[in-house]
Amino acid sequence: MQSATLSDASPLPVLLLEPVAGMGLDLHVTAGRIVLTGELDRATCGHLVAACPMLVAATPAVWVVDLTDLTFCDASGLRALVALRRAAADAGAAVVLNGARPLLRRLLAFVSLSDVVAPVLPAAPTPAASSSGRPPAVHLASLDTARARSSQARSAGPAAGADARAARR
């Protein structure tokens, strides 16, 4: 695995992993945000799995994974996303996958991750088209839902998480 460095340029700690051929991973630890770019495959999925303990230690309530610039994901990448969800559930956190392309959205349904994929929202009108002259409001319902799930998981305790995982198998 490549080494990691902590970026001091950001107000939030950002872990920048050295580039791996075909993939980039930016980890905003305290915000619980992972930005994936390029290809998530057998050669690169270990980086995503390695980010899990860092997020567990930071204890954000919601882990947001930005897949907007992910161009490819194979079965190993899907397994890494499932592992990330399990690690989050074990830590009492929820996962939201943002920006998944249509094909990836279909594949995520096969591995029971479709419930954590953020909905695709219709394009908002441009600020010029707004009657008030203000930018349109941002809809964050998927994050609210994820936070609610996280609160429920934390109040139910670790045993409930293990029961839910056993029921899914």
From TrEMBL:
<feature type="compositionally biased region" description="Low complexity">
    <location>
        <begin position="148"/>
        <end position="169"/>
    </location>
</feature>
<dbReference type="InterPro" id="IPR036513">
    <property type="entry name" value="STAS_dom_sf"/>
</dbReference>
<dbReference type="Pfam" id="PF13466">
    <property type="entry name" value="STAS_2"/>
</dbReference>
<dbReference type="InterPro" id="IPR058548">
    <property type="entry name" value="MlaB-like_STAS"/>
</dbReference>
<dbReference type="InterPro" id="IPR002645">
    <property type="entry name" value="STAS_dom"/>
</dbReference>
<feature type="compositionally biased region" description="Low complexity">
    <location>
        <begin position="125"/>
        <end position="138"/>
    </location>
</feature>
<protein>
    <submittedName>
        <fullName>Anti-anti-sigma factor</fullName>
    </submittedName>
</protein>
<feature type="domain" description="STAS">
    <location>
        <begin position="34"/>
        <end position="117"/>
    </location>
</feature>
<feature type="region of interest" description="Disordered">
    <location>
        <begin position="125"/>
        <end position="169"/>
    </location>
</feature>
